[in-house]
Each structure stands twice: as structure tokens, then as C-alpha cells.
Amino acid sequence: PSPLDKEQRQGLKAIRDFLKVRTSYDVLPLSFRLIVLDTDLLIKKTLNILIQNSIVSAPVWDSQRGRFAGILTATDYINVIQYYCQFPDEISKLDQFRLSSLRDIEKAIGATPIETVSVHPSRPLYEACRRMLKTRARRIPLVDVDDETGRETVISVITQYRILKFIAVNNEHNTVMLKKTVREIGLGTYTNLATMHMDNTVLDAIHMMVDRNISCIPIVDAENRVLNAFEAVDVIPCIRGGAYEELDDSIGEALCRRPDDSPGIYTCGEADRLDSLFDTIRKSRVHRLIVVDDDNKLKGVISLSDILKYVLVHGEEDSP
Ligand code: ATP
What we know:
Blueprint (H helix, E strand, L loop, with lengths): L2 H19 L2 H4 L9 E2 L4 H10 L5 E5 L4 E6 L1 H13 L4 H5 L6 H8 L15 H11 L3 E7 L6 E8 H11 L1 H4 L6 H4 L16 H11 L3 E5 L5 E6 L3 H4 L12 H5 L10 E3 L5 H10 L4 E5 L5 E6 H10 L7
Parallel strand pairs: 1-2, 8-9
Antiparallel strand pairs: 2-3, 4-5, 6-7, 9-10
Adenosine-5'-triphosphate binds next to β6, β10 and α15.
């Protein structure tokens, strides 16, 4: 192997070792808030709660049973929209659905539920990462059990972004060793990309995300130049208040409804090195990178799961 390969391997190993000696608890900031929603809440009402608090997901609590009941995410709203499309006559019923109905909605539309795995906050972070990759869960709740009452408590939720940011902030001396470029390591997806134009509708985008099992669609012009990206979370403001008319709006109109503090999209080139991606993660709240060429034309998509996967498992097969 070349010196570059060797260094890359050393960097990856150091990061993996770091993840094995840190716990999920270590990722949490000293002070944070956690918004937990009761399963009895009307789905319609939860949209405003998320928007008002500038969050896109929340753990759900079953207060009758005193148990953690899963995590509410943009995927659940997309399921609700699919239900609305499949059963348009049931709109009045849809209005009355509570969070506790989400599993029934999944069943009705035939969606495969995302496995809800939780981890104990004091388990190694490495374990949480492996679980994330295995289940495709993008966020994992940290659930502890009270010694005295035996009751579950949700401490927080860790996401792929939080983990990668934690790596980036605490491992600058290791991430600088990752000098191979995005092209060299084949990071991300470059073929059969799902894209749309500004004048496609929100509903078109939702159907595409569901069909392709992805959470982001680059929006390009007629020359394949990247203009923006439509993300699963962009669906939330479109159905605020339980109104579904805006789903027929164009993607361009929907993107105008993004919150003012929305970070927008991040791009990179195929010649960028993995360490520069970690710099971006360290500095900004990035959820994925759109890969473009010098003319800003679309080349590929790098999701956080692509990065996490590479950092965790690349080259593992050939080492004992
Ligand atoms: P999230 O981005 O919500 O954190 P994730 O990291 O799993 O979740 P997805 O967008 O669901 O990201 O990506 C899943 C896989 O599909 C990744 O390997 C990614 O490269 C690929 N992918 C993402 N967007 C597209 C797209 N528009 N076209 C083709 N492939 C895509």
C-alpha cells in the first residue's frame, strides 16, 4: 500500500478506537433541552410544535404505559401524506389521527417500519454507530432505566450528524490523516441519481423519495446545474396545520417556506479530500453534500450515512 493508504488506514483506526472508548453520553452537550411528545397528541398539532421549536423530530412517550414509544420524524409525515393520497376520502378521519395511530398508518399504506433501536447512554459510542448502520435508523434514542422504579427514561437522541461532528471536533489530529479524495475512495452515489426540477411538485418529490428510499433530491436546471436540494424535512412546513393543498405546489414555492435560519445546501468536488469534509462538518450543520463539477453540474450525493459507513467499516474485512 502507498504511504497515503497507510496514513488513511491509521487515521481510520484511531477514529474507531476513539469511538470505542467514548460513550453516547459523551456526545451530549453539558446542557440541552429535550422535547418529548405524548402519544395522545393529534398528529396535526405536532407539526406546529416542531416548527415553533425549530426541530424536525422528537421522541414519543406513551404516558398510559409509562414507556418510550419511538421517534417521530419526517418519515412519519411522509407516511401520513401517502395515506392521504391512497385514501383521499378519509381526510376527516386523518384530521383526528393521533401519534398513537402512526403504526396503523404504516400498516395501511404497507410501509416497512423503521426499526426503533435504542441504546443505553453509557454503552460505547461505537456500538451506537454500528447499530445505526445496520438498521438504517438515522437517529437513536438514548434510553436509561431508573434503578428504583424500573421505568424507562429518554435521555436524548443522537443523530449521525452529532456523531460525525463529535468525531470532527475531537479528532482533528486523526482526521487530517484522511487525505484521500472523495473520488479515490468512491464516497457517495454517482450513478442513477434521483433529481428533479424547480417546477416539479412537492408530491412528485415525496413519491420519488419513497420509491428510492432516500431523503434528499438535488434540484437541477435544464443543464443539470445544481440549484438546491429538496429534503424530507422540507415536507413539514408544507402540511402545517393539517392542510394538504400545498403538496401540489412546486418545489420552488416549497423551498421558500424554509425557516430563515435554514443552512441551505453544501457542495463539494470529487477532488476534495475526506479531511476537508470533516472540516465542513466541524464548522457547519451539514446533513449531506451535493457533489458538483467546476460548472456546478451535478455529479453525485454524499449522505452522512455514506461518511459514517466509510469511517466505521472501510477496510475492516482485510484486517483480522
Ligand atoms: P439522512 O440524509 O436523512 O441523514 P442517510 O444518510 O441515510 O439519511 P439518504 O439520503 O437516505 O441519507 O441516502 C441513502 C443512500 O442513497 C446513500 O448511499 C446516498 O448516497 C444515496 N442517495 C442519497 N440521495 C440520492 C439521490 N438523490 N439519488 C441517488 N442516490 C441518493
